[in-house]
Design goal:
This protein is α/β, with parallel strands linked by helices and about 450 residues long. The protein has helices at about 15-25, 65-70, 110-125, 150-165, 180-195, 220-230, 245-250, 255-265, 270-300, 305-350, 350-395, 395-400; strands at about 30-40, 50-55, 60-65, 80-90, 95-105, 140-145, 170-175, 200-205, 235, 250-255, 405-410, 415, 430, 435-440. The strands form 3 sheets. The chain has a 5-stranded mixed β-barrel with strand order 1-2-3-5-4. Strands 7-6-8-9-10 form a 5-stranded parallel sheet, with helices on both faces. Strands 12-11-13-14 form a 4-stranded antiparallel sheet, with no helix packed on it. Helix 4 (about 150-165) packs parallel to helix 8 and helix 5 (about 180-195) packs parallel to helix 6 (about 220-230).
Amino acid sequence: MPVGGPPQRVLTVSELTLMVRDRLEHQFSDVWVEGEVSNLRTPASGHVYLTLKDSWSQIRAVLFRAAAQRVKFEVREGLQMLVRGRLTVYEPRGEYQIVLDYLEPKGVGALQLRFEQLKEKLEREGLFAPARKRPLPLLPRRVGIVTSLTGAAVRDMITIIRRRCPIVEILVRPVSVQGDAAASEIAEGITDLAARGDLDVMIVGRGGGSWEDLWCFNEEVVVRAIAASKVPVVSAVGHEIDYTLADFAADLRAPTPSAAAEIVVPVMDDLRRTLVESMLRQRRAVGGRLELLRTRVESLRRHLPLVRVRVLRYAQRVDDLRGDLASALRSRMGEFRHRLTAHRHVLGTLNPLAKIRGAAVLAQQIAKRLEQAMLNMVAHKREASRACAGLLDSLSPLAILARGYSIVHHEPSGAIVRDAAEVSVHDEIRARLAKGELRARVTDVKRET
């Protein structure tokens, strides 16, 4: 407390924060701020938390779910934004922040940014790929139209279709083409018509209007409904200079609704004229072909006598060739028969059976001599083996031991003792006998001098 001054009121942190918040909200209740988006967070609650910054400073901002749902584009990191809101203090952390009510991208409209973002997303999914585009039927039996009943566009399309091709049936699915509910109605209308199974082609569109009026044809739900349609779709939105995402997803884009009506159906008179011309061309082609065939038949008929004479001549030639062939075959068979007899005689002189019999007798004699030689060799080897066994037995250490000798080992090394000088008194020794072993301790050693 200051000494000698009036007593001061001591504030709590909460009280001070509340006072600061009241001052800020009162003085900065409606501010516009420009900055770059950073630290963007979009939790499951639906609120959007971000930071606005420039070269020197930054400020936290929050866009609550109700306001976020009204934003027509996707807020992304790095966007340069122009925002409107009120300044307040977030009491738990004592930080001041802007509660946003409105925001738009700087330098480009919100709808244009939303258009570019959604176009990029759907293009990555392949919804605009040229390979998905289907050709329109040449002469549809039933045409569906998804549009508003109150506009001039639907009347123009019906008038043009009936004038060009009166036999085509027209089915109109009325929907709203402007406002918040228009996109869902248009998507539902496209889905309903595509599910019927009796349509050949479908027109989706409306007359001209502002960018905001045409926006429902840029909504994702409409684009996906067009892409999912099993019926070819012609997009006819606005005027020739107006482009929507529905145009990219459709199988064909028409510059206007009236142009779409002209595209989907042919002119009946033109079609009839084309059919008549095709029939006449076909009749002329068939007549020309028949005349050519008639000429060829007449030519063949005139040449028929000459052909008959030529055939008879060839028949005579065939008979001559048949006789020559029979004579040549008989001569050839006689030659083969003579050669066969000669070969049979040669084979008789070279009959291998006699040679085989002589070789069999010789083989038996050789086998007997071989068997006797083997018996003699085995007997000789057996006698040699007995002699070697006796010699080995006489040289065996066991035979020496059997004559009364022994082998003395020094313990515990197991070394053979060959000289009395290798042991000392009290050393342990082991004597190997012909049968068994003896263990002993040396009590006396007599060395040879």
